[in-house]
Write a structure and sequence with these properties.
By secondary structure, the chain is an all-alpha fold. About 60% of the residues lie in helices and about 0% in strands. Helix 1 crosses helix 3 and helix 2 runs antiparallel to helix 3.
C-alpha cells in the first residue's frame, strides 16, 4: 500500500487524513455507505460503488491493523486527556472534589 492509495481510500469514506478514527467508526461508516449503495435497497445505484467501498475499507483496515500501539504511561495520558487533567490537578481540592461543601 502506498500513501496515495491510503489517501484515496480515506477520500472514498469521506475522511480526512487528520481525522482521529477508531475501528468502530471506520466500520460504521463502511456499513452506512454500503447500505446507501446496495442495489437491493435502492434502485438505479452503481454496482461498482460497493466494490470501491470494500476495497477502500480493506486498505484502511490493513493500515489500522498493522498500527503498533504503545501502552506507556505517557501515551495513555495523551489518549485520555480527562485522566491527564485529573492526575495533573489531583492535589487541588476544587478539582479533586475534596473541597466541595455539602449542602443540606
Amino acid at each position: 500500500m502506498t500513501y496515495p492509495e491510503l489517501q484515496a481510500a480515506l477520500y472514498v469514506f469521506g475522511f480526512h487524513e487528520n481525522d482521529l478514527l477508531t475501528i468502530k467508526r471506520i466500520k460504521q461508516r463502511h456499513r452506512n455507505l454500503v447500505r446507501k449503495a446496495h442495489p437491493d435497497l435502492h434502485a438505479g445505484v452503481d454496482t461498482e460503488r460497493i466494490r470501491t467501498l470494500n476495497e477502500a475499507a480493506k486498505t484502511i483496515m490493513d493500515y489500522v491493523q498493522s498500527y503498533r500501539f504503545a501502552f506507556t504511561q505517557e501515551e495513555f495520558y495523551r489518549q485520555a486527556p480527562d485522566e491527564h487533567l485529573k492526575r495533573q490537578y489531583s492535589w487541588d481540592p476544587i478539582w479533586s472534589g475534596a473541597g466541595e461543601i455539602e449542602e443540606k
